[in-house]
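User: Predict the full complex structure for these chains.
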Amino acid sequence: MQKKGTTSAEEEHVSREEFTLRPVGRVKSSYATPADAPRQGRLSDQVSEIHIFPEYRDALYTVEKCNQLVVLCWFDRAERTLLRATPPGQTTERGVFSIRSPARPNPPIALELVDLIQVKGTVLTVRGLDAIDNTPPVLDIKPFIDLDRVQQTKKA
Amino acid sequence: MQKKGTTSAEEEHVSREEFTLRPVGRVKSSYATPADAPRQGRLSDQVSEIHIFPEYRDALYTVEKCNQLVVLCWFDRAERTLLRATPPGQTTERGVFSIRSPARPNPPIALELVDLIQVKGTVLTVRGLDAIDNTPPVLDIKPFIDLDRVQQTKKA
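Assistant: Here is the predicted structure of the two-chain assembly.
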């Protein structure tokens, strides 16, 4: 917890507190290394599996009713110190909060929208995940909902 | 499905490792308590601010080009032990991975889609955030991109 002069001690405590995360599952995919993975999982038809740890099984109750899921993963191999990067196919540098680069300041959490194909026990078969086999711990799974829709993204 | 025997010790180590997150900013909003906040920020026109800590300022470079941002927050007041919950207005219990309840198994990470209204220094003015004032540490900000679009969500 670094000290900054611009905030009160209480605010500093609330907002700078570190916390510990535990994965709720892991990914099984055919991508053995980062070079094998597509730049965006959504651009690929490849099917992967999300193996939820047994103790979270109950959190999957009725998940088969969802067509699309938002998967949050910890990209534990990603660069953590870059604050700017140049997206593939572009020539202009951007701040990482304005692009979807896997390089993020601490923490590198990836957000992936996937199609849910099948649920068997604690294994979800999904399409659209670009995660490397066995590597990224899954942090959370949420259904995609209509509130996530936007009408236009022209500036992004 | 307690198939513990199917994973190697190494896999277990990789996927069960805990890790530490540091917030990159905090929210300033007019919601003082959870009771003040709307059930879904997207349903409200309320404007909030995201204050990014100075050391991450460079990650905001060109963020003003984005119309919508996806904000990941740590919901530090949310219930962490529930695996099932009944969504507001419904009568049927669901697993929390199939609903957008703030109660998540560890970690309770919230995903919020917001409209970006203004960027001034390290302060983003946004519409659609339902976070409580000063409480939830911001973990990451990403632009909403076309890949996040889905054609239908009928089952969800």
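The CA atoms of residues 78 and 102 of chain A lie 6 Å apart.
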